[in-house]
């Protein structure tokens, strides 16, 4: 008789705990919701960006990313041998590349500087404070992604943002 009451009590407690846990997964303060919100505020972010900015462990972030992907609350896209995360919705390769580039400090500085007009590597170096070798490397990736175009003028090369990127 005592065993059956203990079993019923244990079942009720476990049910209540499971119910509370299921409620907490959609609560605004839940990790999954916080990760989804971070992705919505920082489209094109990487797993490392999420770990660094949320303070959650990598394993926890990976678990919640998989859950969010499975539930179609976010989407992922490849970007230069990495994976970037975006809010759920239609994908657009051009804006995905721009968001991913803008999520990183150096490409964002380059795109911002080129927003004022075309520049040579040395002009970009003065404006951004980045070294010329670093600029060349980033510019080649931005050009590969279709975010930057180059125009040869004699011995110099001028870089500019693609017209469709001006927002």
Number of domains: 2
Net shape: elongated
Just give the CATH class of the largest domain. Mainly Alpha
Strand order of the largest sheet: 1-2
Largest pleated sheet: 2 strands, antiparallel
Average pLDDT confidence is 82
Oligomeric category: single chain
Topology, number of strands:
4
Radius of gyration, in angstroms, nearest whole number: 23 Å
The number of distinct helices, counting runs of at least 4 residues, comes to 8
Primary descriptors:
2 domains, two-stranded antiparallel ribbon, 167 residues, alpha+beta, Arc Repressor Mutant, subunit A, 14% strand, single chain, 8 helices, 4 strands
Brief characterization of the structure:
The chain is α+β, with helices and mostly antiparallel strands and 167 residues long. Helix content is 57%, strand content 14%. It has helices spanning 2-24, 31-41, 47-54, 58-70, 93-102, 105-114, 121-128, 132-144, and strands at 74-79, 82-87, 148-153, 156-161.
Model description:
With 167 residues, the chain is an alpha+beta fold. It has 2 domains: 2-91, Orthogonal Bundle (Arc Repressor Mutant, subunit A), CATH 1.10.10; 104-165, Winged helix-like DNA-binding domain superfamily/Winged helix DNA-binding domain (Arc Repressor Mutant, subunit A). The protein has helices spanning 2-24, 31-41, 47-54, 58-70, 93-102, 105-114, 121-128, 132-144, and strands at residues 74-79, 82-87, 148-153, 156-161. The model has no long low-confidence stretch (mean pLDDT 82).
């Amino acid at each position: 008789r005592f065993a059956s009451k203990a079993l019923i009590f244990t079942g009720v407690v476990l049910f209540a705990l499971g119910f509370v846990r299921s409620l907490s997964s959609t609560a605004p303060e839940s990790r999954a919701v916080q990760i989804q919100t971070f992705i919505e505020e920082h489209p094109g972010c990487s797993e490392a960006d999420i770990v660094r900015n949320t303070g959650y462990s990598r394993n926890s972030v990976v678990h919640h990313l998989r859950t969010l992907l499975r539930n179609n609350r976010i989407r992922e896209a490849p970007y230069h041998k990495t994976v970037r995360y975006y809010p759920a919705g239609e994908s657009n390769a051009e804006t995905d590349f721009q968001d991913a580039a803008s999520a990183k400090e150096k490409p964002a500085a380059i795109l911002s500087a080129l927003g004022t007009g075309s520049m040579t590597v040395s002009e970009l170096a003065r404006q951004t404070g980045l070294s010329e070798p670093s600029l060349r490397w980033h510019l080649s990736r931005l050009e590969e992604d279709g975010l930057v175009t180059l125009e040869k003028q004699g011995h110099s090369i001028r870089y500019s943002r693609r017209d469709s990127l001006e927002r």
